[in-house]
Amino acid sequence: MILDNARELSDRFYNYLLKCRSRGVEFNRLLMLAASDVDSVCAVKILLHLFHCDHIQYSLTVCSRFQDCVDAVAAAGDSVRTILMINCGAAESVVERLNVSDKVRIYILDSRMPVHLRNLYSAKQVCVLRKFSQEDIQQIPRWEEVFREEEQEENENGAPDGEGGKETDDNDDVMSQSSQNFRGDAGRARARKRREKERELREWNSKRIAVEEGYYKNVYYQDSSAVRMFELAHLVSKDDQELFFWAVIGLCEMFMQRKIGSTEFVEVWIFWRMGHLHVCDRA
């Protein structure tokens, strides 16, 4: 699920944290997993200000690699119902890698693109807090190009995606001989239907692999996570000059590290100076 505008960021992310706060200790634990880069640190500083203002309880773990995230979630156990990943997790299928139950909701705030397709197409459990341009959306493969409704059933029957093609090719002759053992036309029809289904699966897997390779081949970065959190602070009327300072540092770090170009840097700066976020003008 994508939450790509400031209003959704407030209504479906921050308000959710506020609701969890009021439900009691069982639902109150927020686990933050943050990368160690400057932009991530600045985003955390802004979030901590918001959490302190609204008395949201949290645990914070700094992660230098994804295994640190896995270890932190495992150590927290069942006490965690909400996970916020800052500048980490976008490239991973987080539900599978973190091995969490379906009761856990995961929010990903990561400037790295592209985002793993399983995170994007998660109905409710995974939410991506990232702006997507029209070009970004056009590059995302359609659901039917990378997922199948029968995928789980086929995997349980011993034909995992991307691995069943060669085996079924080798066994075509055996299947043909086995089909002769069926009595009557009904048995032969079932055998033909099975072979046709396996052929369609092989063709679909080949197309899926090509689509995924094209989608994942280019790694790039978008807007600063600190800027994204400052927009949230502004929307909930808790922004100030100090938070603006952290947002500027996060943005400048991405520009200095060449994660974003001069065009993206100037666009964000002009957006601020046009009066949308006029914190600098406050006395």
Fold blueprint:
Elements: H1 6-21, E1 30-35, H2 38-54, E2 58-63, H3 66-76, E3 82-86, H4 94-98, E4 105-109, E5 112-113, H5 117-120, E6 126-128, H6 134-139, H7 143-146, H8 151-156, H9 164-170, H10 172-179, H11 184-216, E7 220-221, H12 225-235, H13 241-256, H14 262-276
Parallel strand pairs: 1-2, 1-3, 3-4, 4-6
Antiparallel strand pairs: 5-7
| Contiguous helical run count | 14
Number of strands: 7
Q: How large, in whole angstroms, is the Cα Rg? A: 24 Å
Detail the poorly predicted runs.
152-168, 279-283
> Mind describing the biggest β-sheet?
5 strands, parallel
Strand order of the largest sheet: 2-1-3-4-6
Give the fraction of residues assigned to helices. Answer: 55-70%
Sheet-strand content, in percent, reads: 5-15%
The SSE string, one letter per element, is HEHEHEHEEHEHHHHHHEHHH
Structural class: alpha/beta
Cα end-to-end separation: 39 Å
Shape: globular
- Mean pLDDT across all amino acids: 82
How is this structure best described in words?
The protein is an alpha/beta fold and 283 residues long. It is 56% helix and 10% strand. It has a five-stranded parallel β-sheet with strand order 2-1-3-4-6, sandwiched between helices. Strands 5-7 form a two-stranded antiparallel ribbon. Helix 2 (38-54) packs parallel to helix 12.
Summarize it.
With 283 residues, the chain is an alpha/beta fold. The chain has helices at residues 6-21, 38-54, 66-76, 94-98, 117-120, 134-139, 143-146, 151-156, 164-170, 172-179, 184-216, 225-235, 241-256, 262-276, and strands spanning 30-35, 58-63, 82-86, 105-109, 112-113, 126-128, 220-221. It is globular.
